[in-house]
Write a structure and sequence with these properties.
The complex is a heterotrimer.
Chain A (H helix, E strand, L loop, with lengths): L1 H13 L7 H37 L21 H7 L6 H32 L5 H12 L3 H18 L9 H4 L7 H11 L4 H9 L4 H12 L1 H17 L2 H6 L8 H4 L12 H28 L9
Helix pairs in contact in A: 2-14, 3-14, 4-8, 4-11, 9-10, 11-14
Chain B lengths: L1 H14 L1 E2 L7 E2 L3 H8 L1 H33 L5 H9 L6 H12 L5 H6 L2 H16 L15 H12 L4 H12 L3 H9 L4 H29 L3 H6 L11 H11 L3 H29 L6
Antiparallel strand pairs in B: 1-2
Chain C lengths: L1 H21 L11 E7 L3 H16 L1 H5 L1 E7 L3 H10 L6 E5 L3 H6 L7 H6 L9 H7 E2 L2 E2 L2 E7 L1 E5 H6 L1 H6 L11 H11 L1 E4 L5 E8 L20 E2 L4 E2 L4 H17 L1 H9 L10 H4 L2 E6 L3 H8 L18 H5 L4 E4 L12 E9 L7 H11 L2 H10 L11 H6 L5 H9 L3 E2 L7 H16 L5 H28 L1
Parallel strand pairs in C: 1-2, 1-3, 9-12, 14-15
Antiparallel strand pairs in C: 3-14, 4-5, 6-14, 7-12, 7-13, 8-9, 10-11
Helix pairs in contact in C: 2-17, 11-12, 20-21
Classes of the chains: A mainly alpha, B mainly alpha, C alpha/beta.
Chain lengths: 309, 290, 476
Amino acid sequence: MSTLETEIQNRVSNSPTISATARPVAKRKHLERWVATIALLLICIGFALPFVWMLSTSLKTLDKTMEVPPHFWPSPMVPGNYWKVINHPKLDFPLLARNTLIIAVLSVLGTVISSSLVAYGFAKVRFKGSGVLFVMMLATMMIPFPVMMVSLFSIFRWLGDHTPVQFLGTLRPLWLPTWFGSAFNIFLLRQFFMTIPDELSEAALMDGCSEWGIFQRIILPLSKPALSVVALFTFMGAWNDFLGPLVYIQHPQQYTLALGLQTFQSQHGGTEWNLLMAASVLVILPVIILFFLAQKTFIQGIATTGLKG
Amino acid sequence: MVFTLIPVVLSLYYSVCDYSLLQPPAYIGGANYHELLDDPIFRKSLTNTLLYAIIALPAGLMVSLGLALLLNVKVAGQTFYRTVIFLPSLVPTVASAMLWMWLFNAKLGLINTVLDWLPFRLLIAGINAILGLVHLPQIETPIGWLTNPAWALPALAFMSFWGVGHTVVIYLAGLQDVPSELLESAEIDGAGMTRRLWHVTLPMLSPVIFFNLIMAIIGTLQVFAIPYIMTGGGPARATYFFTMYLYDNAFRYLKMGYASAMAWIQLLIILALTAIAFWSSRKWVYYQGK
Amino acid sequence: MHYIRTTILTLLGLTALAVMAFGGRSVESHKGQVVVTYWEKWTGKEAEQMQQIVNDFNQSVGQQKGIYVQYLSMSSVDQKTLVATAAGVPPDIAGLWNSQVAQFATINAVEPLDDLAAAHGITASYYKPVYWEGCRFNGHLWALISTPATIALHYNKRLMLERADSLRKAGLDPNRPPRTLDELDRYAQALDMVEKTPNGQKRIKSAGYLPMEPSWMLTYIPYWFGNKLFDEKTQKLTLTDPDIVRAFEWVKSYSVRLGKDSMTEFTNGFGQFASPQNPFLVGNVVMTLQGPWTANYVEDLKPSMNRWKFPKEKEKGMSVEERRKNYEWGAAPFPSAVPGLTDVSYASFDTLMIPRGAKHKQEAFEFIAYVNRQDVMEKLNSLHCKNSPLSQVSEQFIRNHPNPYISVFEELARSKNARGVPPMPIWPEVADELGVVAQRVYLLQAEPKEALQDAQNRLQEKYETFLERQRLRAKS
């Protein structure tokens, strides 16, 4: 990788040295930070509202949930609602969580692997008709799901009839398509891959690296933020997906969490808002925790700043 | 991709058929498309959607970009702020819809309660004075956000800002790739915040901005789930969006062929807008790698 | 900080693994039994109530005949059923709506039930005519019933007594509900509480009656004006008939009388239907049009209205008339605009249908027949707080029903002036369109005559195109 190292050396030595203008710069940064903090606090109050309301409702007794004027602080506070949800006779919470987790994990694996491969193809590999194919792929995002539902369902049925693998009546229709690439993620990753300088790949090629090697050793490590975004979004999407399970799941044993939330809704009055909100909070809690913890990967960016620029 | 391509092609075939889902499709040529052109509901849903997009799209992009930049400043508790901004996009659809319906309620909702505070009342009085000067109708308080046909659509557009979490996260990931020494050297050269933004950050971010632009075009034109629960398309079809009409045609009226034709018209519109975006992208999108 | 992160992540990972490996209670197997899949549209409490009935079946008739009903209940079930049936893997029983009977029958989506019904001894005389007719289309039986309803006038007895002076001044009796539509208008006006704001505008504090609360009933309001909406003989919609124009003029009259601005200001602040701020429950409107489920709503959202004079326990063993005194609200037939036309109502119901291609038709019908047995039907509808579709109704059903006014709904269901949906295969589309017409009329966006004419033209054309295409299919 010597050519690569030379590249890095060149770039680092070309950056200017710190001059005496450092002090006023530091002062400006301080002011920026203050302004930003205040703005963020105000905005966050607004953005936190939906979740705070959910949380507050989840801790109330049923009659207090729809009271007007609304009070954010529940009194009496009923944390027992959460226990009720987990142990609800009609809702096998651990089972739903298991099903949803299986779908989510498999979807993340499938999406990250397949989408990054295809995105690399679109971004770096020159092949005939890549433009047309790219547009076609984009176009598949533009057709709303309801229109495609029936055809997809029929495909799974056909596959079930003509191959030894069954699809309908299993969880497979919910994660298998992700192993074939997802237009959204392919597009996203392509954009990121295209920001990686060609010189790096060329340098690697000169050092005798194969296309696959470039992909593995250069592109992937540099795209950690983008890949973690893809993983996070896919996880979220699979975790919260309602329409997919609604259509494909045939068996109460295969319910996902999103479907399970319906247990608390009623058509003719009697929706147990407090339990519904408690269940909703439980459902989104893992994603929140994941997001909170995974932020380092967004922030991390690139190990050596000298690789860019 | 094979999973998506086949249904897409099939839907094109359905669009030239009479297909009720439960009977086999029967070819009828361009009749669906003809009928659509004459259909006032189709036109109404299209105008509603475009109007929604015009409000929600530019504003949403600016809001999300602004938020991302704000969240990129190294302040204490950055992780916390980012999580909070992302939270609303996690809230399940039903909970979200219920919350917003309550917030928007003219008498009992929080928004109108806040608008009743003095600074906002003065603001509205000021706006009304200006409107009166140009002979436009006045804003009546309390505003019937979801029940007044004039306000329902703007209310939904306003609501869409809360869902910017995804876009912001993508911007944040993109911002990490902006080379810090470029920023530092610009700063040392005396560039202020705005100039650094305009000349360094934005160009480096442009591929991501482009992505978010395309996704936003697709997203706003396909708006469906939450308004369907909140207003059902009312009042008097003021918030009846394109995808809602498509859904009703497919699953309530059992006119899947008609719905497929609608889907393809929507596709063409989105493609057209995307093409414009692509063409313009040559002027302002800068791929570092090239 | 790094350690905390790693520990939390490991914990999450371990929980995930544990959940994946051990989560979930065990599954029962059904060897040797025919498994009948039943997809229903309910969630929450209603779903549980039907689950009880399913369990009852599985433990009794199901055991005897080797049938196990697998019950799956979720919202948007019609979407799911359509997709599955279209792909050739339908459920054995689908719980849908009466408005879909003609639609599904025409496009051959459901199995005709004539033979199966005859084999089980189920005939027309078993049901109240309006429900039996609703299950039939083009001479065949396509569905049977799970939970029916009729709609009636609901009035707030307490508020009427509070405003008795105002009513008496108008020459009206505060102790009974109105009996003709004219009288209803006069009651409504006398019950209105309107005040003048400092800048001379009207502000409504409480309305006697508002046609648009709730607005979904307005689609069927022409029934009370003597019109059936659709002429079967000519196969034409009758939306421009003078009766219907009159009906929507009547709707408009409320907006005009109360003033559009003050009315919109008033209705903008209405709470949601399924909340304690429901306009009827908080006294925003004194009279409204609703179904038998009101008793359940009130019980859940504002139970004090069901305990006006004495505590609930005292109601046990009381006669229905005595029980009614404990309820702040009452129900009566919604009055019609046509002299002599009494006991008009719109009768809807939830259906049980067998999609075409279902694998276990015979067994599925066993369950449907079970649900339609008198005792089971009464149990289900007691739980769902609805009336019974059967012509025979036991005395206990009426006496023990959560709704003390259930006999009002029963009488309406037997009336010859009760109607279901018009027998039109494109009814869902027409219903939606009529709903929009009603909204435009009461928002004073359009004149009734024009709006109806426009709807009539477009819908009639759509209907004829539909029939034409069906004919073409039949030929090929």
